[in-house]
Amino acid sequence: MKLEVLADADGLFHVGCAGDVSLAELEPREPLSVLLGPGCYRYHLLLNFDQVTFLDTAGVSWLIRVKQACDRAGGRMVLHSVPPIAAHLLQLLRMHEVFAIGEDERQGRVLASGGAP
Known about the structure:
The protein is an alpha/beta fold. The protein has five helices and five strands. It has helices spanning about 25, 30-35, 55-75, 85-90, 105-110; strands at about 1-10, 10-20, 45-55, 75-80, 100. The protein has a five-stranded mixed beta sheet with strand order 1-2-3-4-5. The longest helix has 17 residues, at about 55-75. It is globular, with a radius of gyration of 13 Å.
């Protein structure tokens, strides 16, 4: 998985995710803390999934851990532009009940700021 900061403003990090979100791509260190620093969970993280080509249960587990870390630190995690291959797994696992997921960047930004889609 490749991560890159797309924008950083007013406590919101917009991060692009590309490639496979799977166990092999997530070890040995948590990639968001490597990219943004260990205190990143206190911010609002907007994860753009439009370039994600594969998501497995280990990737979902990573997302759960990131969300939990954000919840503990007072931050927020929002996904947006999730492709059908990943959206299907998230729906199957009922993760739409756990994660804030926007259809596109605009909706993701609204969710990241605490609003309703």
